[in-house]
Amino acid sequence: MPKAHAVSTPEERKVRARKIVSYLKKAYPVPETELVFTTPIQLVVAVMLSAQSTDKRVNLVTSTLYKRYKTVNDFANADLTVFTEEISSITFYKNKAKHIKAAAMMIRDEFKGTVPKTEAELVRLPGVAYKTAHVILGELHDIWEGIPTDTHVRRFALRFDLTSNTELTKISKDLEALIPKKDWKYVNNGFVLYGRYVCNALPHPCEDHPLTKIWPPAAERWPKAK
Questions:
Q1: For 38, which DSSP code?
Q2: Domain tally for the chain?
Q3: How far, in Å, CA of 89 to CA of 18, rounded?
Q4: Which of 9, 43, 135, 176 has its CA 20 to 30 A from that of 58?
Q5: CA distance readout (Å), 190 to 14, 27, 113
Q6: How far apart are CA 190 and CA 30, in angstroms?
Q7: Which of 141, 163, 187 is the last residue of a domain?
Q8: What DSSP element (H or E) covers 115?
Q9: pLDDT tens, residue by residue, 79-114
Q10: Number of Cβ within a 10 Å radius of residue 84
């Protein structure tokens, strides 16, 4: 867990969060996933596959997979044994295969083949929780009704003392309370890209990194993966 120190006040967290997001908005002005997809259901599947996996690995798998699977029906009608093998290089591939097929069947049967546009509907899909639902809403529909928290967002929220929680959805709610809704769209993708290309998860000197300059104590805070 992060190095012990006095917990910031809510107002201190709010000021710090807004400074951080101001940087992310300038550095990454167009929120856009690095997952590769062509159709809406392919984005849903890619996001489901990306849980506890890297976008690079997902894109490697889907570069071949998506030549065969393009529509909701393609995924709903997939042979589960074959499909499971096709995604076997992804973490937790067996459960993900079951969830993807079941989610596609529900989209086909209950939502007339269209990916839902609300959190309440999306989280009914097997394998879809708060984080996945809000990535889908933002990427597909430009609806930003929540802040998705993945490993990158969790890491920076803890490093910059923007939350006292470690559970992903609770972190999302804490961030949503600190950041104006108009800026929610910049948080997930901003932290993801910053974490991949500027400040990775392994402890390293980062005093000169842009966000650490905003709050220097972050240089000594390296939260463990959950």
A1: S
A2: 2
A3: 39
A4: 176
A5: 17, 8, 31
A6: 9
A7: 141
A8: none
A9: 999 999 999 999 999 999 999 999 999 999 999 999
A10: 18
Three-class secondary structure of residue 158 per DSSP: helix
How many alpha carbons lie under 13 Å from residue 31 in its C-beta half-sphere?
Answer: 27
pLDDT of residue 2: 43
Contact 158, 223 (CB under 8 A): yes
Which residue, of 141, 166, 197, is where some domain finishes?
A: 141
**Dihedral, 36, 103, 144, 67 alpha carbons, nearest 10:** 10
Mean residue pLDDT across the chain = 95
Largest Cα separation within the chain, whole Å, is: 54
Instruction: Give me the CATH number covering residue 117.
Output: 1.10.340.30
Q: Are residues 47 and 131 in the same domain?
A: yes
Q: In terms of domains, do 62 and 126 share one?
A: yes
Report the pLDDT value the prediction gives residue 226, as an integer from 0 to 100.
63
**Which CATH number does the domain housing residue 210 bear?**
1.10.1670.10
- Considering the domain boundaries, does residue 92 fall inside one? yes
Contact 17, 178 (CB under 8 A): yes
Q: Smallest Cα–Cα separation from 144: which of 108, 110, 114, 180?
A: 180
**Cα–Cα–Cα angle for 116, 104, 40, rounded to 5 degrees:** 55
Q: Is residue 24 part of a domain?
A: yes
Cα 178 from Cα 13, distance rounded (Å): 7
Compute the distance between CA of residue 158 and CA of residue 43 in angstroms, rounded to an integer: 28
Please, which residues have CB within 8 angstroms of residue 112's CB and are 6 or more apart in sequence? none
pTM for the full predicted model: 0.91
Stated as kind and residue range, the H or E segment containing 111 is none
